[in-house]
Amino acid sequence: MASDLPPDFVIFTSIRYEPSLQQPALSLPYYLLPFHLARLRGAAEAFNLNKVQELLRDDVSALALLRRAVDDAVPDTTTPWRVNVRFTPDAQVTSSATGIPPLRNNIMSLPDTDALPAFLQQEVRRRGLKHWDVVIDTEPTPASLFTGHKTSAREMYNAARDRAGLVSYDEPKEILLWNESGEVTEGSITTVYLWRKASGTGAPRLVTPPLACGPNASSTRRYALSKGLCGEEAVKLEDLHDGDEIWLSHASDGFFPGRVRFL
């Protein structure tokens, strides 16, 4: 696979540097750092990037490398940043930082599964969280290695955003993607979580599409699954309704609500 990749191909991850919070469980100020490492390892393996795999093999040295890459890119340690850390197939590492606003929602971590539905409803009311406008794409985005991992090959996401008329990444708007089998996969920049009823009890629970459907194996997805905050379940487009509440996540803002809208 590595020999077939474009000459400018990189795998990368986007790490939030957040100096206002100190939560060891989330590796702050480097938000979810071990989960970013897991994501990069998965991408290096999927694309047969042997040199990158070797560079990231040891936990201690790999995490130190990521922290160093973030530190090298951040020009001011008193403000938050989104830091892109990139790896070329020959294991060259580069990083760059973009200034980002203070946390809009401040939901970086989530409670245990049983308390999750009530917690999220409370947070929406207490914080006055704005639901993102999540429009459903009009065309499928086929599942591939390039949807499953974060790489420089992002043409499919750009095309989806163009179809929805999304021009800014700063607006609370997203497009919901689906694969050729009519299964929900992800957002163009977010992981998606959908409410379903647990078998037997009928209690509400969050599910996220399995990787086999084609979503990106994101850092926040890995975190949510590792804590048992959601399950994996394929969800068909036909099971969604206009106005349904869903939840979204990405490594810059944590977790936040959205509402489905059909174009």
Automatic annotation (TrEMBL):
Xref: Pfam families: Aminotran_4
Highest taxon, organism lineage: Eukaryota
Entry GO MF terms: lyase activity
SUPFAM superfamilies the UniProt entry points to: D-aminoacid aminotransferase-like PLP-dependent enzymes
Entry keyword set: Lyase
Xref: Gene3D superfamilies: 3.30.470.10, D-amino Acid Aminotransferase, subunit A, domain 2
Name of the protein in its database record: Aminodeoxychorismate lyase
